[in-house]
Specification:
This protein has 350 residues and is an alpha/beta fold. It has eight helices and 17 strands. The strands form two sheets. The chain has a nine-stranded parallel β-sheet, with no helix packed on it. It has an eight-stranded parallel β-sheet with strand order 2-4-6-8-10-12-14-16, with no helix packed on it. The N terminus is likely disordered.
Length: 350
């Protein structure tokens, strides 16, 4: 068991390093900078506390961070999706821009050749937007150098400085989003594929390390889905409530963070077991019984259904709840059986 546990930890650690291999143009960390004079020849996905682009991105740019900025010397030749606390476009963007966060600013040196879609607490535009602009915020300000060559659709408190120009119509529409940001989709299809592969690999590790336990968990989902799902939901809510209560005490913060990390790991394992159980159920209709094939079928099925709005989220939630309930019951049964076996062992004659 010690060797198995060490193998599991090593493989999971190796998997955590795969994003850099799977997505060469993905950058993350405390600060991500595309330096002046630097050129990124493909799409760039950046996730950090601070993201600054002073160089050139030849493809699309997807960013999320506390502060996100395209500097005056920065150029993006594709589309841009930005989400962050503070967002600024002071350089050139050839395509469309979608931005959302606390504040969005297009400086007087900024130029967006395509359209601008932004939702934030406050929006300030003092540069050029070559297409339409759809802006939603509590306060929207067009500076004296603002020039929107298409139509302006907005919702919020709009003010326009002398000199600002809107080439098309100006329409207020209450359906315009007034906060949040674009749906970054965790990096897009590349990250969806990576997530499915990591889930598949983690599932293979679980099946290899704990074959009997994994089979029992899947069988429990098939035998008692209602009871299993109900227990999964109740335990998950109880754990969340307990972590919150511990977190509010100062000395309990480290304990709650450790508990949260363990809880996330259990949820990950539960999602894998839920997919495995789904795969076994689907294979049963074909008269097949192969745990490795069941894992693959379950992971692929959930990934494909996940592409369907609403239905995908519903299926993923149900699979997670069922898997978590079965995992909790499996751990409890293992603990109870071990506790019952301990006294019997202690009374055995030497």
């Amino acid at each position: 068991m010690t060797r198995t546990a060490l193998t599991l930890l090593v493989v999971v650690a190796l998997l955590a390093s795969l994003p850099a291999v799977a997505a060469a143009e993905t950058r993350s960390g405390g600060t991500v900078v595309v330096a002046e004079g630097e050129t990124v020849d493909d799409d760039l996905e950046a996730f950090a506390g601070s993201v600054v682009v002073r160089g050139t991105v030849e493809g699309d740019l997807t960013t999320a961070g506390g502060d996100v900025r395209i500097g005056e010397s920065g150029t993006v030749r594709g589309d841009v999706e930005m989400s962050g606390g503070s967002i600024e476009v002071a350089g050139n963007v050839t395509g469309d821009v979608e931005a959302g966060g606390g504040s969005v600013r297009v400086a007087d040196t900024g130029r967006i050749d395509g359209s601008l879609t932004a939702g934030a607490g406050s929006i300030f535009v003092d540069g050029v937007v070559g297409g339409d602009a759809e802006l939603g915020a509590d306060t929207i300000t067009l500076g004296p150098d603002a020039r929107i060559e298409g139509n302006l659709t907005y919702d919020g408190d709009l003010s326009r400085a002398d000199g600002s120009v809107v080439g098309g119509s100006v329409t207020r529409d209450e359906s315009v989003q007034t906060g949040g940001g674009p749906d970054l989709g965790l990096g897009g299809p590349l990250f969806d594929l990576y997530g499915a592969l990591v889930t598949l690999l983690f599932g293979a590790i679980l099946l290899f390390a704990f074959p009997r336990f994994s089979t029992e968990v899947a069988d429990r989902v098939a035998a008692e889905p209602v009871r299993t799902g109900g227990i999964g939901m109740l335990v998950a809510l109880g754990v969340v409530a307990g972590l919150v209560l511990v977190f509010v005490t100062f000395i309990g913060i480290p304990l709650s963070l450790a508990g949260l990390l363990l809880f996330v790991l259990l949820l990950w394992a539960a999602s894998v077991y839920g997919r495995y159980a789904l795969g076994e159920w689907l294979l049963s209709y074909a008269g097949l019984d192969n745990r490795w094939l069941a894992l693959i079928v379950g992971v692929v099925a959930v990934a494909l259904v996940g592409l369907v709005p609403l239905l995908g989220q519903l299926v993923q939630t149900v699979v997670l709840v069922l898997g978590f309930g079965a995992l909790v019951l499996g751990i409890w049964d293992a603990y109870r059986n071990r506790s019952e076996a301990a006294p019997a062992t202690a009374t055995d004659p030497i």
